[in-house]
Prior knowledge:
Blueprint: E1 10-13, H1 21-28, H2 31-37, H3 47-60, E2 63-69, H4 71-77, E3 89-96, E4 111-118, H5 127-142, E5 147-153, H6 157-166, E6 169-180, E7 183-193, H7 194-202
Parallel strand pairs: 4-5
Antiparallel strand pairs: 1-2, 2-3, 3-4, 5-7, 6-7
Amino acid sequence: MENLFRSARLIYRAFESPEDDHLFWLMAQDVEAAVNSNPRLPKPADKAEIEQSKKVYSEKCLLGVIICLAPDSAGSNSVDKSTSSEKPIPIGRIALDAGFATQTAFARHRSSQIGLELLANYRNKGYGSEAIRWILDYGFRIAGLHRIGIGCFSWNDGARRLYEKLGFVLEARQREALWHDGGWHDIIEFAMLEDEWKALKAHD
């Protein structure tokens, strides 16, 4: 039987404390990632904020998992060549947020939103696109969702290009909704429907 929580190079597992506490701390210190994923005013993360983030991933999401580099991939891809490749290496996290999907009054809409964060040293290596493809498969094929959304801000052109390449459809652009680095920027919203995902899979 297939391993539902494995893709070509990655393993997806539940959040474990204290094993993953350091990963959440590292992500909380990553200002670039925070600015690219959250419109809140950037500020140093305190312990309470980190604890809340851990609680959301472990309890509030439809699916919240730690992304790990598989042992058979870590040897040639690890940024730290001294790191043993006998165990999966945590490199980020991905989730289908609570949204409509887990609220009883809205569950019939079968809609959710992807949230993704990778440690800086593991970006631009294809892990993000691999994880997104995996969670799309899980969301549509296993969780029975009908619509999965994802978004970015207009200054993050790399994310926009990736989502378009993966087959997401542009749905909305909130013009000049965010103030960032001395200028106004847009919120860009994408989504994929169940039938669109099936069409993409048919061409794989």
